[in-house]
């Protein structure tokens, strides 16, 4: 076989790279946003993730290994008095960050990676996307959650009992919405013991899967024999 024929055969045997897949974990449909200013409830001083929306239980879990490249939050629009109320009682200006959570036994979730905290006040009443300058690694089955060190109008309420989210509060502290329970600082893991039904955290995350190599099993194209020498 000629050298050209050998090169062609080798190229056909090389593994091909499967294209990365892009998905929005927890896609926000039209009309999904925080409840303020009507019945104004806020996520306060906790880390949470959406456990279920209707029959879907894995909307906020990575379908494969990959990276989180951006996150989105659909915010309610609290009025001046509501904003002042939350700000004074819950540690300051409205803020949040995206976080990757690994699952352990007994509902324990551990921080795997987290994005920078973003100030939200300027975006009240809007849906805003925050691109990540440093993307976050995530493994198949890990959760993407929302960390709120102060408060955020990012809670949709009045939904069906088949929709629920989990919080990083202890089982005896589910009603305590003012004590800091968010996974911030050195606090890296805790049981997500509190399940809140009929409500949704109004965030999503943009996921890009890791490329994988797929071996090309097609047979090499036949090559013409090299011409014989004199």
Residue share in helix = under 10%
Low-confidence stretches: 6-11
Radius of gyration: 24 Å
By DSSP (H or I, 4+ residues per run), the number of helices equals 2
Bin the strand percentage.
Answer: 35-45%
Extended strand count: 16
Task: Quickly give the structural class.
Answer: mainly beta
Average pLDDT score: 90
Topology:
Blueprint: H1 3-13, E1 16-18, E2 22-25, E3 43-52, E4 66-74, H2 80-89, E5 95-103, E6 108-114, E7 118-119, E8 127-138, E9 143-152, E10 155-157, E11 164-167, E12 189-191, E13 194-197, E14 199-201, E15 203-209, E16 212-214
Description:
9% of the residues lie in helices and 40% in strands. The chain has 230 residues and is mainly beta. The strands form four sheets. Strands 3, 5, 6, 7, 9, 11, 12 and 13 form an eight-stranded antiparallel beta sheet that branches. A four-stranded antiparallel beta sheet has the order 2-15-4-8, with no helix packed on it. Strands 1-16 form a two-stranded antiparallel ribbon. Strand 5 and strand 6 form a beta hairpin.
């Amino acid at each position: 076989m000629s050298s050209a024929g050998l090169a062609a055969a080798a190229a056909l045997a090389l593994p091909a790279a499967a294209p990365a897949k892009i998905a929005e974990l927890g896609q926000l449909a039209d009309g999904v946003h925080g409840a303020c200013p009507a019945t104004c409830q806020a996520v306060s001083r906790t880390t949470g993730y959406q456990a279920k929306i209707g029959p879907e239980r894995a909307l906020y879990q990575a379908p494969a290994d990959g990276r989180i490249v951006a996150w989105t939050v659909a915010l309610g629009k609290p009025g001046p008095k509501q904003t002042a109320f939350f700000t004074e009682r819950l540690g300051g200006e409205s803020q949040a960050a995206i976080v990757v959570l690994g699952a352990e036994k007994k509902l324990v979730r551990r921080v795997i990676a987290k994005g920078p905290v973003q100030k939200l006040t300027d975006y009240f009443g809007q849906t805003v996307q925050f691109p990540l300058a440093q993307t976050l690694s995530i493994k198949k089955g890990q959760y993407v959650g929302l960390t709120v060190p102060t408060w955020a109008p990012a809670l949709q309420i009045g939904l069906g009992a088949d929709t629920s989210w989990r919080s990083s509060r202890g089982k005896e502290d589910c009603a305590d919405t003012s004590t800091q329970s968010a996974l911030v600082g050195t606090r890296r893991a805790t049981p997500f013991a509190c399940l809140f039904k009929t409500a949704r955290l109004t965030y999503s995350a943009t996921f890009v899967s890791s490329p994988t190599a797929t071996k090309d099993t097609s047979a090499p194209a036949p090559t013409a024999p090299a011409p014989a020498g004199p």
